[in-house]
Design goal:
The complex is a heterodimer of chains A (164) and B (215). In chain A, 68% of the residues lie in helices and 0% in strands. Chain A has 164 residues and is mainly alpha-helical. Chain A folds into two domains: 86 residues, RNA polymerase sigma factor, region 2, helix turn helix motif (Rna Polymerase Sigma Factor, Chain: A); 69 residues, Orthogonal Bundle (Arc Repressor Mutant, subunit A), CATH 1.10.10.10. Classes of the chains: A mainly alpha (164), B mainly alpha (215).
Chain lengths: 164, 215
């Protein structure tokens, strides 16, 4: 593969790395696993890159590969890791921006989302990333109606967790 | 506004807190080796195609087989069985290769999972076929030892022990073969299905979850 292609790819990924980091933060629980998954997604993106035609945005294309890797291809790393000091990025909430109740609510919600199954997480992730139901259904391979139904169920689930 | 929209607002502000990898960090990553489940499925599948055939390369097994082929009247049966076996094996390898090629990370999640599981299923059918063939061959050997007096000399080269008639020795050998064939196929089968189960447990779970949504 040519040097040009490498350069374009790495630059694109560097600019869009937030998407991958967000996927990693949802699907892993410690820093090592986060990095491990990030690396696997990068490898899969790079392997698939020659097939990227540019008829969609690089970021749109990334969502699919990143989620497929997290849900289907990624096998948990066997390395022994110290999970005690890991303060996952998704729990970091800036105190000055929220009042205490809302801060607590957000923390509870993130914890609840982390406890969802792999598929539910993918739905929530795409929803949080402001994807519409057409995109969600195309990424996961389910019908739009079913994506909506499932999303409503997840919302209800989260509601009951927050207001027991 | 529901709870999830509050979360969405916070989620989209997350940018600054996320790790920032440099150009070089990412550049190094693209040359690392993948450890994806598909890669493992590929490696293990290839091993599973090779291992049953490696048995034939062990010298004692091979000479034994050759001796069996040419020392009894059922040699044609064994020969045809072997030819049939290889035709089927090549068919399985072709199917496996075709399905493996269809796996693409660019498909939607459900199609991707379906294709991986289909590839894996080819290997599963191959294993069931191989085990049945091993079992059948052993049973045929047992039958030929029992019914064909010439065969005894192939498996039992020393003199018949005292207090045993040839008839009794043949029966014992035949029963031995049957027991060995049952134990062997069960053990290999068990190991295989445990491995298979572990490898695709997560995949199966997620695929079922997606299928459930369609009901």
């Amino acid at each position: 593969m040519s040097k040009d292609l490498e350069h374009v790819f790495v630059t694109e990924l560097q600019n869009n790395q937030n998407i991958v980091h967000k996927v990693c933060s949802l699907y892993t629980n410690d820093r090592d696993a986060h990095n491990d998954l990030f690396q696997e997604i990068t490898i899969q993106l790079w392997k698939a890159y020659p097939k990227f035609r540019g008829d969609s945005k690089f970021s749109t294309w990334m969502y699919r590969v990143a989620l497929n890797t997290a849900i289907t291809l990624y096998r948990k790393s066997k390395r022994k890791v110290n999970t005690q000091n890991y303060d996952s990025i998704i729990y970091k909430i800036k105190a000055d921006e929220y009042d205490e109740t809302q801060e607590l609510q957000l923390k509870l919600m993130y914890t609840a989302v982390k406890q969802l199954g792999d598929i539910d997480k993918a739905l929530v992730f795409l929803y949080l990333e402001d994807k519409n139901y057409t995109e969600i259904s195309e990424t996961l391979g389910i019908s739009e109606v079913n994506a909506r139904v499932k999303m409503n169920r997840i919302k209800t689930k989260l509601k009951t967790i927050l207001n027991p | 506004m529901d709870e999830l929209d509050i979360l969405k607002k916070d989620w989209q502000k997350k940018g600054e807190e996320l790790p920032k990898l440099s150009y070089n960090d990412i550049y190094k990553m693209i040359w690392k080796k993948s450890s994806s489940s598909v890669k493992w499925i590929f490696i293990i599948s290839i091993l599973e195609f090779i291992l049953p055939n490696l048995l034939l390369l062990i010298p004692s097994v091979r000479t034994h087989q050759i001796e069996i082929y040419y020392s009894n009247n059922s040699k044609h049966l064994f020969l045809w069985l072997t030819i049939f076996q290889y035709i089927v094996i090549f068919y399985f390898i072709y199917q496996f290769y075709k399905r493996y090629k269809e796996i693409s990370v660019l498909d939607d999640a459900k199609t991707l999972m379906k294709n991986i599981l289909r590839t894996r299923k080819t290997v599963k059918h191959y294993i069931i076929f191989s085990l049945s063939m091993i079992f059948l061959t052993m049973l045929l050997m047992a039958a030929s030892v029992y019914f064909n007096p010439d065969m005894l000399s192939v498996f039992y080269k020393t003199d018949i022990p005292d207090g045993l008639t040839e008839e009794e020795l043949r029966t014992m050998l035949a029963i031995g073969f049957v027991i060995i064939s049952i134990v062997m196929t069960s053990i290999i089968g068990l190991i295989y299905f445990l491995l298979y189960g572990l490898l695709i447990r997560k995949l199966n779970k997620n695929y079922k979850e997606l299928k459930r949504m369609e009901i």
